């Protein structure tokens, strides 16, 4: 009878599958191995299926076990999310709100939302960091932050809830003194031309993109840890790169930076990405966090530029 299934059995199943053995699973659950083996045996009896092949040195998921593992994970995520929401509804105001923001997202919008938070909850301390690429989701997964603002689609995780905020545009730019800015009129820049010059790119502070590059076209790169450094180096004429449009609007208007005349980096050398407010499904959001999220959504919606016809959202957030 499937009605006799328990969440403990499902959690034990998932833990053993992820740990790779009954012994390792028992250690993660802080139980004796015999109790873990008994729980798995009871689950198999309830399902009338063998979840693990125990013939070898280590238990191996059967075909049925692999098929049901995704269902078990989904059930546990939903239950954890319900528990977190219930705890959040019953708890008082947080002592601190910790927030990590993707470097592509406009800090002015975050500041305005924090002003609204302080007006409603003046006693809540605020701790904020700004990191590129995998930094925000890594902070959530490692429980170093309550909320994160993520940009792009590359670091989605089933343990994280994402709420769309607004589109963020990046513009491929170069200093007015750079050779790429002094090409004859109408001489469009191709990928080969870009590859001949140094590209300034952001380094991912997390391990989530290990072995991967996003938007890197040149074999010559200068990798930096922050958007301000990247901005300053591009302004200096060292190389070219992409920067958020909100950061370079004045530089473009005053002629310190120019858009790269290329269609290899999006129309008008511009690409668009979706920004999300993210949090862990299994961690409750207190009243202050919920208030900040609501304020940020209002502010982002009010500041959102009109959609440009025909421009699709991109899936990568390049450095």
CATH fold-level assignment of the largest domain: D-Maltodextrin-Binding Protein, domain 2
* Helix fraction bin: 25-40%
What number of domains?
Answer: 2
**Total helical segments:** 10
Shape descriptor reads: globular
Distance between the termini: 53 Å
Beta-strand level of the residues, as a percent range? 15-25%
- Which spans have pLDDT < 50 for at least 5 consecutive residues? 308-315
CATH architecture of the largest domain: 3-Layer(aba) Sandwich
CATH level-1 class of the largest domain: Alpha Beta
Structural class: alpha/beta
Computed CA radius of gyration, to the nearest angstrom: 24 Å
Q: What string, H for helix and E for strand, traces the elements in order?
A: HHHEEHEHEHEEHEEHEHEEH
How would you characterize the largest beta sheet?
7 strands, mixed
- In round numbers, the mean pLDDT is 87
Counting DSSP E segments of at least 2 residues, the number of strands comes to 11
Keywords: DNA-binding, Transcription, Transcription regulation
Family: Belongs to the LysR transcriptional regulatory family.
Pfam families: HTH_1, LysR_substrate
Protein name: LysR family transcriptional regulator
Characterise this structure.
Keywords: DNA-binding, Transcription, Transcription regulation. Belongs to the LysR transcriptional regulatory family. InterPro entries: LysR_HTH_N, LysR_subst-bd, WH-like_DNA-bd_sf, WH_DNA-bd_sf. This is LysR family transcriptional regulator. The structure is a single chain. This protein has 319 residues and is of the alpha/beta class. It has two domains: 89 residues, Arc Repressor Mutant, subunit A (Orthogonal Bundle), CATH 1.10.10.10; 226 residues, 3-Layer(aba) Sandwich (D-Maltodextrin-Binding Protein, domain 2), CATH 3.40.190.290. Helices cover 40% and strands 20% of the residues. It has ten helices and eleven strands. Strands 3, 4, 5, 6, 9, 10 and 11 form a seven-stranded mixed sheet that branches. A two-stranded antiparallel sheet has the order 1-2. It has a two-stranded parallel ribbon with strand order 7-8. Strand 3, helix 5 and strand 4 form a beta-alpha-beta unit. Helix 1 crosses helix 3 and helix 2 crosses helix 3. The N and C termini lie far apart (53 Å). The relative contact order is 0.16.
